[in-house]
Design goal:
Blueprint: H1 12-22, E1 31-34, H2 44-59, E2 63-68, H3 78-90, E3 99-101, H4 106-118, E4 122-125, H5 129-136, H6 153-164, E5 174-177, E6 192-196, E7 210-212, H7 214-224, E8 229-233, H8 240-250, E9 256-260, E10 263-265, H9 272-280, H10 295-301, H11 305-314, E11 322-324, H12 326-340, E12 342-344, E13 346-347, E14 350-355, E15 364-369, E16 379-384, E17 387-391, E18 411-414, E19 419-427, E20 434-442, E21 459-460, E22 462-464, E23 469-476, E24 503-511, E25 523-526, E26 530-534, E27 544-549, H13 554-562
Parallel strand pairs: 1-2, 2-3, 8-9, 10-11, 12-25, 14-20, 18-21, 23-27
Antiparallel strand pairs: 4-5, 5-6, 6-7, 13-24, 14-17, 15-16, 17-22, 18-19, 19-20, 23-24, 25-26, 26-27
Helix pairs in contact: 2-11, 7-8, 11-12
Bound molecules: adenosine-5'-triphosphate and magnesium ion.
Length: 563
C-alpha cells in the first residue's frame, strides 16, 4: 500500500530493533505479530498496534504474523475472527501464510506445563478463586502460601492429567506457577496458569476443558512462532518479569517483550467490553455503526485506510499514556480526502429558488471542476435551469451584520453559474417561514464573472430542481458528550454520557444528477458542506450518504490558537 509510512520517525521501539540488528541478537531477524483476542471487532486503538507491528516488519524486511489469541472460549466467536481478518486486509496488510491460532498450540502448552510441574515449579491448587485472591495479599502485605503448595510432584502430575481428562468441575482446581508469594510484583505471586472450563471452543470443540491463562500462554505463542519483538501495550509492563520467568524456566527460545502506550481518543470509548454493550443494548446500530471507533464503523463512515495510517504514524509511539484529540483523527482524514475526493454540489436543507427572468424550459450545462487538487480528475457537466435549490441557511430575511450570503436586494454568485439578486420571498401562511426565494439573474455573468468587474461577497452552491436526485444524508457528531465517558460520577455509567445529537437524519437532501451512479463506499466532497460517503443502506431508488466529516478543521484551529 502506498502511504508515506516510509517516513516513520525513529521511536524507542525502532531504536531497540536497530540496536538488536547491530548486535545480531536474533540473527538479524525481525519478526513481530498482531495477537487479537477474537472477542470483539477491532477499533482504532488496534489499528495503532497493527500499523506498528506490520509497519515495523515491512520497514526492517521482517515478517509479521496474525495470531488469534483464542484462549477464552466463552467470549470468542467466528464472526469476530472474520471481521478482524477483513479489517486488517482493509488496512492493507498481509500476513501471507502466517495466520495462527493460539489454540493450535494447546497440546504443546500442556506439555510445557507438565515440564514445569516435573521441575517442581507448578502445582495444583484447590483454593477457590476468591480464596486465591485473598491469599494473594496486596501491595503492602505479602501473600500467604496455599496449603496445597507443597504437594508432591507425582500428585500434581496426576491431578493435572485428571483435570485435563475432565474429572473435575469448573473452578474446583487450577494449575499455579510456584514462584514467590512475597514478591513485590503481584503478578509473580504464584499466578494461575490453567483453569477448568467445560466450554465448547470455536476451533477445538470439546477437546479441552482446561484453558491456559493469558500470561502463561502469550510468551509460549511468541516463542513457538519465533517472534523476535513482542510488542504490547503498557499495562503488560508489570507482567514482563513473568513472561521472562516462564520462558527462562522452560529454557526455550525467548523473544523480547516491549511495551508502548495505548492509543486513547476523547469523546469515545475503546474498551471492547463497553463497545459490546453499546451493540448488544442497541445504543448503536451495530459494530459498524458509523459513530463507532471500530474499523468497520470508520470504514462505513467513509474513513480511508490511508488516513488511519497517517494518523497512527503522526501520533507516534510513546512510553507514557495520553489521550489524542479526536479532532486530530478528523484532521488526518480531511487531509487525505481533500486530495482524492471528487467535488460535487449537494444541498442538505433545500430552499426553492426561482429565477424569474430565466427562460422557462431552458437548460444549460456548466463545466464544473472535479477536484482542484488534482487536475487529472477533469470536469463534469452540471445542469442549470429556472428553478433551483439552495441551502436554507444561505438565505436570511433579516441578516446579522457579517452575513454575506443571500438577503433581499443583495447580489451573490451561484457557483459555476450566474450572479443573481434576490427580489422577493414567498412565505408559508401559517408558519411565516420562507419557502421560496425569487431572484433575477444577469446573463452577462455566465460562468460566474461579471464583465464590468462587479464584486459579490459570496458564492453559493445549488442544484437544478428538476435534475437533482433526492437523497438521504446522515450527519454524525461525537458518540459521547463527555471527553472521557469512562470517568463517571457515582451512580452513573458511561452510557449516561451518550450524546443525543450523535445522529441526525435528513431525508430530502438534493444532489447533482452526476451522483446517480455512485456506489456504496465512494466518497465525495459536497462543496462547502464536507465529505460524504455512500452508505450500503442505499437502494436504486434512494442513495444514502454518511457525512464523513465536515470541512471545518477544528484541530488546525486549535493549533493556531495555541501558537
Ligand atoms: P481485551 O484484552 O481487554 O479484550 P484488548 O483491547 O487488549 O482488549 P486484544 O485483542 O487483546 O484486545 O488486543 C490485540 C492487540 O492490540 C494487543 O496487543 C493490544 O495491546 C493492542 N491494543 C489494544 N488496544 C489498543 C490501543 N488502544 N492502543 C494500542 N494498542 C492496542
Ligand atoms: Mg488484550
Amino acid at each position: 500500500m502506498t502511504t508515506d509510512n516510509s517516513k516513520s520517525a525513529r521511536d524507542f521501539i525502532r531504536d531497540i530493533i536497530h540496536q538488536d540488528l547491530r548486535t545480531n541478537k536474533y540473527d538479524g531477524r525481525v519478526h513481530t505479530r498482531f495477537p487479537p483476542e477474537p472477542n470483539g471487532y477491532l477499533h482504532i486503538g488496534h489499528a495503532k498496534s497493527i500499523c506498528i507491528n506490520f509497519g515495523i516488519a515491512s520497514e526492517f524486511n521482517g515478517l509479521c504474523n496474525l495470531r488469534f489469541d483464542d484462549t477464552n472460549p466463552i467470549k470468542e466467536e467466528q464472526e469476530y475472527i472474520d471481521s478482524i481478518i477483513q479489517d486488517i486486509r482493509w488496512l492493507g496488510f498481509d500476513w501471507e501464510d502466517r495466520l495462527y491460532y493460539a489454540s493450535d498450540y494447546f497440546e504443546q502448552m500442556y506439555e510445557f506445563a507438565v515440564q514445569l510441574v516435573q521441575a517442581g515449579k507448578a502445582y495444583i491448587d484447590e483454593l477457590s478463586a476468591e480464596e486465591i485472591r485473598n491469599y494473594r495479599g496486596t501491595l503492602t502485605e505479602t501473600g500467604r502460601l496455599s496449603p496445597y503448595r507443597e504437594r508432591p510432584i507425582e500428585e500434581n502430575l496426576d491431578l493435572f492429567q485428571r483435570m485435563r481428562a475432565g474429572e473435575f468441575p469448573d473452578g474446583s482446581r487450577v494449575l499455579r506457577a510456584k514462584i514467590d508469594m512475597a514478591s513485590p510484583n503481584l503478578n509473580m505471586r504464584d499466578p494461575v496458569m490453567y483453569r477448568i472450563l467445560h466450554a465448547e471452543h470455536p476451533r477445538t470443540a470439546d477437546k479441552w476443558c482446561i484453558y491456559p491463562m493469558y500470561d502463561w500462554a502469550h510468551g509460549l505463542e511468541d516463542s513457538i512462532e519465533g517472534i523476535t519483538h513482542s510488542i504490547c501495550t503498557l499495562e503488560f509492563e508489570d507482567h514482563r518479569v513473568l513472561y521472562d520467568w516462564f520462558l527462562d524456566e522452560l529454557g526455550i527460545y525467548h523473544p523480547q517483550q516491549i511495551e508502548f502506550a495505548r492509543l486513547n481518543l476523547n469523546y469515545t470509548v475503546m474498551s471492547k467490553r463497553m463497545l459490546l454493550k453499546l451493540v448488544q443494548e442497541r445504543f448503536v446500530r451495530g459494530w459498524d455503526d458509523p459513530r463507532m471507533p471500530t474499523l468497520s464503523g470508520l470504514r462505513r463512515r467513509g474513513y480511508t485506510p490511508e488516513a488511519i495510517h497517517d494518523f497512527c504514524r503522526r501520533t507516534g509511539v510513546a512510553k507514557a499514556n495520553s489521550t489524542v484529540d479526536i479532532a486530530f483523527l478528523e484532521h488526518c482524514l480531511r487531509h487525505d480526502l481533500n486530495q482524492r475526493a471528487q467535488r460535487v454540489m449537494g444541498v442538505l436543507r433545500p430552499l426553492r429558488l426561482v429565477i424569474d427572468n430565466y427562460p422557462e424550459g431552458q437548460v444549460e450545462e456548466f463545466d464544473a471542476v472535479n477536484n482542484p487538487e488534482d487536475p487529472s480528475a477533469g470536469t463534469r457537466k452540471v445542469p442549470f435551469s429556472r428553478v433551483l435549490y439552495i441551502e436554507h441557511e444561505d438565505f436570511r430575511e433579516d441578516a446579522p451584520p457579517k452575513y454575506f450570503r443571500l438577503v433581499p436586494g443583495r447580489e451573490v454568485r451561484l457557483r459555476y453559474g450566474y450572479f443573481i439578486t434576490c427580489v422577493d420571498v414567498v412565505k408559508d401562511e401559517q408558519s411565516g417561514e420562507v419557502v421560496e426565494v425569487h431572484c433575477t439573474y444577469d446573463p452577462a455573468t455566465r460562468g460566474g464573472d461579471s464583465p464590468d468587474g462587479r464584486k459579490v461577497k459570496s458564492t453559493l452552491h445549488w442544484v437544478s430542481a428538476e435534475h437533482a436526485l433526492e437523497v438521504e444524508v446522515r450527519l454524525y457528531d461525537h458518540l459521547f458528550n463527555k471527553e472521557d465517558p469512562t470517568d463517571v460520577e457515582d451512580g452513573t455509567d458511561f452510557k449516561d454520557y451518550l450524546s443525543p445529537d450523535s445522529l441526525e437524519i435528513l431525508t430530502s437532501c438534493r444532489v447533482e444528477p452526476f451522483l446517480a451512479s455512485a456506489s456504496p463506499g465512494s466518497r465525495y466532497q459536497f462543496e462547502r458542506q464536507g465529505y460524504f460517503c455512500v452508505d450500503p443502506d442505499s437502494t436504486p431508488e434512494k442513495l444514502v450518504f454518511n457525512r464523513v466529516v465536515s470541512l471545518r478543521d477544528t484541530w488546525s484551529k486549535i493549533q493556531k490558537q495555541q501558537k
